[in-house]
Amino acid sequence: MRFDALHEEPCSILRPLALLGDRWTLVLLRQAFAGVRRFEHFQSSLGVSRSMLAQRLTRLVDAGVLSRSAYRDARRTRYEYRLTEKGLDLYPVLMALRAWGDKYLAPDGPFVHYRHTGCGGQVGVRLCCDTCGDEVTARDVTPDPGPGSVDLLADVDAHRAAQRRHPAGDLAGDVLIGEPDLGEDLRA
Predict the structure, then answer these.
(1) d(Cα 155, Cα 144) in Å, to the nearest integer?
(2) Residue 180 contacts by C-beta under 8 Å, 6 or more apart in sequence?
(3) Is the pLDDT of residue 167 over 60?
(4) What residue ranges do the domains of the chain occupy?
(5) Which of 38, 81, 110, 123 is the most buried (most CB within 10 A)?
(6) Is the dihedral of CA 171, 175, 181, 185 positive or negative?
(7) In whole angstroms, how large is the CA radius of gyration of the chain?
């Protein structure tokens, strides 16, 4: 698997990683969620080169994550970048990364607290069942093939057969394809 070909992989984790998984993109999105919209403000807040920033912004615009609209300052036409609906849908992803970072990489505590403007309560991240509302962890979830996985079923079967031949196989792969005994393995 090559990083430059992740967008072709039949995986809903690898495809976003192909778009978002470089050194600058998530930081750029963090700034967009903080209200940064103009090229020069992105550049000054991130310290990234103009060419790198232009490349990342163009890629996010082309992917529909940001929109680009012209405005005129005293000297020339410039552009601002705003999160689209597709971009706004990345908010839970950034908040999940923040929560993980707060838990494991901030020994003195969170750098920022996020409060709900409606009630003032602290905002957290949780996964829950769409049907019953129960909070879930990796131990509570069994992945099933979705409509986009028709061509993958043979690969899943081959992976499971390989796992039976080599039981100490790839735990991450087991989690993603729903190895039937994984729940017990994780609880052990």
Answers:
(1) 14
(2) none
(3) no
(4) 3-84, 143-187
(5) 81
(6) positive
(7) 21
148 contact partners, CB below 8 Å, separation of at least 6: 10, 12
Q: How confident is the model at residue 180 (pLDDT cuts 50, 70, 90)?
A: very low
CATH class of this structure's domain 3-84: mainly alpha
How many residues belong to the chain? Answer: 188
pTM of the predicted protein model: 0.75
The Cβ-side half-sphere exposure at 106, using a 13 Å CA radius, reads 12
Nearest to 65 by CA among 53, 81, 78: 81
Calculate helix-pair angle for 50-62, 25-33, nearest 10 degrees. 80
Listed in sequence order, the residues at least 6 apart from 168 whose beta carbon sits closer than 8 Å to its beta carbon are none
Which ranges of 34-90 would DSSP assign to H, the alpha helix?
A: 39-46, 50-62, 85-88
| CA–CA gap between residue 162 and residue 81 (Å, rounded) | 47
